[in-house]
TrEMBL record:
This is D-isomer specific 2-hydroxyacid dehydrogenase NAD-binding protein. It comes from the Archaea. GO terms for biological process: L-serine biosynthetic process. CDD domains: PGDH_2 (cd05303). Residues 18-319 form the D-isomer specific 2-hydroxyacid dehydrogenase catalytic domain. One of its GO terms (molecular function) is NAD binding. Belongs to the D-isomer specific 2-hydroxyacid dehydrogenase family. It comes from Acidianus hospitalis (strain W1). InterPro entries: D-2-hydroxyacid_DH, D-isomer_2_OHA_DH_cat_dom, D-isomer_DH_CS1, D-isomer_DH_NAD-bd, NAD(P)-bd_dom_sf. Keywords: Amino-acid biosynthesis, NAD, Oxidoreductase. SUPFAM superfamilies: Formate/glycerate dehydrogenase catalytic domain-like, NAD(P)-binding Rossmann-fold domains. The keyword Oxidoreductase applies. Residues 120-295 form the D-isomer specific 2-hydroxyacid dehydrogenase NAD-binding domain.
Length: 324
């Protein structure tokens, strides 16, 4: 479809309308107001109401609740910027925005440290069966549970970006041998960090622990599919704080049940909340630990997300030629 350029003539601070449709941190709201922008804060607006009012706004600011779908973008004739106070764009129709020449700003990387720390926590939880042990302790049963040690084991990182790289550095400090695979050329960067770049097949064959840190679309084909499970080592621990679709859930259930997969520890599900029968069965399995997508949910990460998104939004407003 042909790209149409947004009209930016005669835009100024007084006639630029900003609509915030999800709860955002005070720092964002206050900064926009202090700069003198006209901001409507409607953190619980329904889709129907949004459809009615969107044509009055130049900028929409969302977190994860509001879905900025094609119909909203098409109805929003004045829209010039979509700001997502977050690290991903899953809830925005980026194709529809691009076709209209609407700029999207967000805060990739703002929650990297929080996601890295959760990943290491999940890795240890899986290896030491901490969830089972804690559940027993809480029910008054003080029984010893044997797990696995991570030092001396091989960790395979799939997706050697911001989070994957930091997880690798920490794992090395824990005494692990670290392999990494990415679709990009990571050879020099990995080698400099003492991390071994490998093919996916080598990683699957050699790893005692596999940790996924890929950016993949909602409909991507799983990286850990039936064939991948077949060539993995026995007793492999799998950690996933990236996207559930990177793993074939039904194949995972099969290999968890057979005992080949020692533990699966993840922060993401195929459906959040879960709905498929196989997904619920997997979730209930004692060697499966799932957290409720809390990778970015720390005070520090949420503050950085708000500050970075606000800075990026203000820069985008300046690019429209608006003085403030
Ligand atoms: N659980 C959470 O709350 C939480 C928090 C932060 C990030 N995340 C997710 O973690 C993932 C990684 O984030 P990041 O900031 O490190 O991203 P990033 O873009 O820095 O790194 C992702 C890496 O994955 C690689 N990649 C993409 N497809 C691949 C494939 N098929 N095989 C191998 N490598 C592939 C890319 O080349 C890139 O190097 C993302 O999916 C992100 O959404 C989740």
């Amino acid at each position: 479809m042909e790209q149409t350029t947004v009209q930016t003539n005669s835009l100024n601070k007084e006639n630029l309308n900003i609509l915030i449709t999800d709860p955002v941190a005070d720092v964002m709201l206050n900064t926009l107001k202090e700069k003198g922008f006209h901001v409507d804060y409607q953190p619980e607006i329904s889709k129907e109401e949004l459809m009615k009012v969107i044509e009055n706004y130049d900028i929409i600011v969302v977190r994860s609740r509001t879905r900025v779908t094609r119909d909203i973008i098409e109805r929003g004739k004045r829209l010039k910027i979509i700001a997502r106070a977050g690290i991903g764009l899953d809830n925005i129709d980026t194709d529809a925005a691009q076709e209209r020449g609407i700029k999207i700003v967000y805060a990739p990387g703002a929650s990297t440290d929080s996601a890295v720390e959760l990943t290491i926590g999940l890795m240890i939880t899986g290896a030491r069966k901490m969830y089972t042990s804690m559940t027993l302790a809480k029910s008054g049963i003080f029984k010893k549970i044997e797990g696995l040690e991570l030092a001396g084991k091989t960790l395979g990182i799939i997706g050697f970006g911001r989070i994957g790289t930091k997880v690798g550095i920490i794992a090395k400090a824990m005494g692990m041998r670290v392999l990494a695979y990415d679709i990009m050329d990571i050879k020099d960067r990995a080698t400099q960090l003492g991390i071994i770049p490998v093919t996916l097949e080598e990683l699957l064959k050699q790893s005692d622990v596999i940790s996924l840190h890929v950016t993949v679309g909602k409909n991507a084909k799983p990286i850990l599919d039936e064939k991948a499970f077949e060539i993995m080592k026995d007793n492999v621990i799998i950690v996933n704080t990236s996207r559930a679709v990177a793993v074939d859930g039904q194949a995972l259930l099969k290999y968890i049940k057979s005992g080949k997969v020692y533990a699966y520890a993840a922060d993401v599900l195929w459906h959040e909340p879960p709905k498929e029968e196989w997904e619920l069965e997997l979730l209930k399995h004692e060697r499966v630990t799932i957290t409720t997508h809390i990778g970015a949910q720390t005070k520090e990460a949420q503050y950085r997300v708000a500050v970075t998104t606000t800075e990026n939004l203000l820069n985008a407003i300046k690019e429209l030629g608006v003085q403030f």
